[in-house]
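dumping this here before i forget
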Amino acid sequence: MKIASFNDFRVGIVDGSTLYDMTDALPRFLDIMPRQRVNFLIARWDEFGPILADYRKTGTQIALDAVRLRSPNPAPQHVFAAPANYRKHIGELGERSVTTGGRSAREQGFFLKAPGSLTGAGEPIVLPRGSARRFDHESELAVIIGREVRNVHRNDAMSYVFGYSCLIDVTMRIEKGVGEEERSMRKSFESFTPMGPYLVTADEIARPDALRNRLWVNDEIRHQANTSEMIVGIAELIELVSSVLTLQPGDVIASGTPEGVGPIQPGDALRIELETVGSMSLQVKECDARAPRPF
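structure:
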């Protein structure tokens, strides 16, 4: 099943070129906090999953190209991310790298991105106005957690996965001696975590550990890898994070980028594609207003 959040954070099921609006199947109290609809749905999937499965009979049909797609989960409690999780990516940034000595996500652990940085396929990537800094794309598989869990062993971890999505981790790079901000800050500008176009439930992805991962900038391919090349697989990532704190339904784990990281600038067009998960295209623009703190 392909779950979408759209327009004013309504919830729909995507089938081909049609979206079936299923918002009215959810409790009305969610209307006062619409960003939480997907978290609620995931946490109560045993109850509401069968209702949404009947979308062809009960949903309101809308042409998919007539809606504005948001992040498929607009407000997870956490967005975790794995650094240096593809061997060929380690070291490719040279002096801009903050992961040194050949260390991977296994040694480094995870970092956090602000949930407020999430956007969807219908929204642009917005760079700070007038910035001379370098901003890069990173193409990743997003893992969405389905049930609360703490201290789960990797052998049992995959049963806690609700689904998957495409994710771009946009990053402002450090400049030695000039700008060396914390990683979480450099990756948490609003719009720096596009995710989408949909949340694809885990039952539709037979081999999440063997998916082709590609990204293009202006039709030039930049990333071309496979999730089988990850140093720390999905199950081990869940084990790692849950060893530190309790994972919640709807939490997102960005599983790391392969080699091919490169700069983007206003006017660029990006397209990410993860095999069987989906693809989405995004425009890069400059923020309308200049920030009071320049970057």
